[in-house]
From TrEMBL:
Superkingdom classification of source: Bacteria
UniProt name for this protein: Tetratricopeptide repeat protein
SMART domains cross-referenced by the UniProt entry: TPR
SUPFAM superfamilies, per database record: TPR-like
Record-linked InterPro entries: GH29D-like_dom, TPR-like_helical_dom_sf, TPR_rpt
UniProt organism field: Dorea longicatena
Annotated Pfam families: CHB_HEX_C_1 (PF13290), TPR_19 (PF14559)
């Protein structure tokens, strides 16, 4: 091989090498361009995706830009109204603006349309906890299907049990016992108002006294989730005294007499001398009454602390 041939081959090798290098450079540039395009498309897809809208809304919420945050969360809902993150974010926007009612309506309206959306129920429950409205959780789950409640056992609290049946009339003071599942506390009221954790805490039997008594009770688990309230009403009617003993007996008298009524403990006596029936509006007996001259119809009655009235005792006196 002569010198010219070697030079020609060397030039050809150099040309091929440069060509390969150029092709590699083009391929690299093409790959980088494709990666850039894919990245741009990916970023655009992310920014216009459900998660992208939610994250953008959360960032706007962090800087207190409630208008943009609401727009972002609603945009996310338009893309997918079954996922909970956008509802949670939008509820926080409303809460930050002191509009808890609007936040609650957001969840209630959505759950009416999505009765089997377990994650939406979870988000609603967390909203109630976040807004210190734990008492609304049992009502929410009471209206849910068994499919939902079976998936949320940590939020389902059984109501307390009562030892006495309501609807009966008892003739003696009763002791009412309340029981709940292990670890749960019981709170109750006797004033016909629904109980909260600020009501009476049950520690010992409740005395049901004479008259009508209404007991409301709830059980509360360790997480502070209450049960639905249970209401039971009781009536205790203690035996009433017979008509009061009045002395002296009916009759004619020639000398001044004092009329006395025997008043048992826990009772008040009332009387009339004008033939009318005695009531609590009549004259209250405080001690012996001087018998009037002439003919007198004296009537007396006993009234206990609960306002129950005994029979009437009548005496016919004539003082000459």
């Amino acid at each position: 091989m002569n010198e010219d041939e070697r030079r020609r081959r060397n030039r050809e090798r150099a040309r091929q090498k440069a060509l390969r290098k150029k092709k590699k450079k083009r391929a690299l540039l093409l790959a980088l361009s494709l990666l850039l395009i894919i990245g741009i498309v990916g970023i655009f897809a992310y920014m216009t995706s459900y998660i992208g809208a939610v994250n953008k809304g959360n960032k706007a919420l962090e800087r207190n830009d409630y208008t943009e945050a609401e727009d972002c969360f609603r945009n996310a809902m338009a893309k997918d109204d079954t996922r909970p993150e956008a509802y949670t974010g939008l509820s926080k926007v409303y809460q930050a603006q002191d509009n808890t009612e609007k936040a609650e309506r957001l969840f209630s309206d959505a759950l009416k349309k999505q009765e089997d959306n377990i994650e939406l129920y979870r988000a609603c429950i967390k909203f109630y906890i976040r807004s210190d409205q734990n008492e609304k959780i049992p009502e929410l789950l009471d209206n849910a299907t068994s499919t939902i409640t079976d998936e949320l056992p940590e939020y389902v609290v059984k109501t307390p049990k009562f030892s006495l049946d309501d609807g009966e009339v008892y003739d003696d003071v009763q002791q009412l016992k309340l029981t709940a599942e292990s670890g749960n506390k019981i709170y109750y009221t006797k004033n016909k108002k629904k109980p909260t954790t600020g009501s009476h805490k049950y520690n010992s039997p409740i005395q049901i006294e004479e008259g009508d008594t209404t007991i409301y009770a709830i059980a509360v688990n360790k997480a502070g989730i209450p049960s639905l309230p249970v209401k039971k009403s009781y009536t205790v009617e203690l035996p009433i005294e017979d008509a009061p003993a009045v002395s002296p007996s009916t009759g004619q008298y020639s000398t001044a007499q004092e009329i006395e009524i025997k008043v048992p403990d826990g009772y008040t006596a009332y009387y009339t001398t004008d033939k009318s029936e005695p009531t609590t509006s009549s004259t209250k007996y405080t001690g012996p009454v001087e018998m009037p001259e002439g003919e007198t119809i004296f009537k007396a009655v006993l009234v206990n602390a609960k306002g129950r009235v005994s029979g009437i005792t009548t005496r016919n006196y004539v003082l000459n």
